[in-house]
Design goal:
The protein has 355 residues and is mainly alpha-helical. 59% of the residues lie in helices and 3% in strands. The protein has eleven helices and four strands; from the N terminus they run αββααααααβαβααα. Helix 2 runs antiparallel to helix 3 and helix 4 runs antiparallel to helix 6.
């Protein structure tokens, strides 16, 4: 009898030589690899653009695209701003007081750091889910990655608030300067701007709106939820301290309620005492003596440095994840200790009582 040739079934057949589609899967995977190779070859022929995933700038095992270049540039600008504040804080009484960082230097640092935070989302797949640091300390790295980007956004909002960029009087002075061609003058304090009563009322309203915006931002990005993981040590090392610390700062952006004396009410045309009014004195003292611009810049610089350390750790370069974790924990503790020390000094000097 004639021998039958044992040929494999045609490619279009649903059957395969292995019985489970193994030959087809191998062929498909081979074609997929060829497609990936062709796409990579085509991508290498295209002209480079800073907005795509490729970059010609490489340092060791790191590729610096828009995210990496913006992070490096913003860190340099933040350090320059800190140098300005250091010279200002340590200036002698005989010499004139150096000026704070110029608005364009601070604005560029804030813009670049915002780009870093906004371009970090596509990098999440490169971040591991979690790492066991200790017996019950297991940080979820991707959640921490999102929280770090939110911290950058919070600090940028506070820096803009400190410079008065959310205030009516600032934009009013800018409009007058652009209309008349004169130089923008006046400080960030509304009492030194020479604005009228309407401007002062609008400044108070804009500060109040900003406080509610900050409240919404804090609740959206830092609230640990109603069922946090109490058994995970990372909750007590990072989640709760960041939530409480930023929460106290957010609460201090709201005005306090002060009771008016009889003399104040009579002077204002009232008939009896016991009236109340909103006061921004405690908020101004907090923003100028406790969490001032130099502290915000220091926190932003430390955040950028810690984020870069984790980038190196995730790739196994220079530092491991466990060492990086404890370095970042020590950084958060040091920043919190500085706030407590400044707050204790401010409470002993002023007692946060409105004069």
């Amino acid at each position: 009898p004639r021998l039958r040739s044992r040929r494999p079934p045609p490619r279009s057949s649903p059957l395969s030589t292995t019985g489970f589609g193994g030959a087809r899967e191998d062929a498909d995977s081979k074609e997929e690899r060829e497609k990936v190779g062709r796409r990579a070859a085509d991508a290498s022929k295209r002209r480079w653009s800073p907005l795509d995933g490729r970059t010609p700038l490489r340092v060791g095992g790191l590729r610096f695209g828009l995210h990496g270049v913006s992070g490096a540039a913003s860190t340099i600008l933040l350090i320059l701003c800190l140098v300005h504040h250091h010279r200002r804080d340590h200036a002698g009484t005989s010499s004139p007081l150096p000026a704070p960082p110029p608005w364009y230097l601070l604005g560029c640092a804030m813009a670049l750091s915002s780009i870093v935070a906004s371009t970090s989302r596509p990098l999440l797949p490169q971040v591991p889910q979690s790492t066991r640091i200790y017996a019950n300390v297991i940080p979820p790295h991707r959640e921490a990655f999102k929280r770090t980007a939110a911290v950058v956004g919070y600090l940028n909002l506070r820096l803009a608030r400190g410079r008065g960029w959310f205030r009516w009087s600032t934009w009013r002075r800018l409009g007058i300067a652009l209309w008349t061609g004169s130089r923008i003058g006046g400080g960030d304090n509304p009492e030194s701007t020479g604005i009228d009563g309407l401007g002062e009322n609008w400044d108070g309203l804009s500060d109040l709106v900003f406080a509610f915006v900050l409240l919404a931002f804090h609740s959206r990005h830092f609230f640990p939820g109603f069922k946090p993981d109490w058994t995970n040590g990372n909750t007590w090392i990072f989640v709760f301290p960041i939530w409480i610390g930023l929460g106290v700062d957010m609460a201090m952006q709201f005005p306090s309620v002060s009771l008016l004396d009889d003399d104040d009410v009579v002077a204002d045309g009232g008939g009896s005492g016991g009236a109340s009014a909103l006061s921004w004195n405690s908020s101004r003292r907090w923003n100028s003596e406790i969490i001032d611009e130099s502290y915000l810049l220091l926190t932003m610089t430390a955040t950028m440095a810690v984020a870069f350390l984790f980038t190196l750790a995730f790739r196994g370069i220079f530092v491991d994840i466990k060492s990086c974790y404890w370095i970042s924990a020590g950084t958060v503790a040091a920043l919190g200790a500085k706030v407590l020390l400044s707050a204790a000094t401010g409470l002993s000097d002023n007692d946060f009582e409105d004069n």
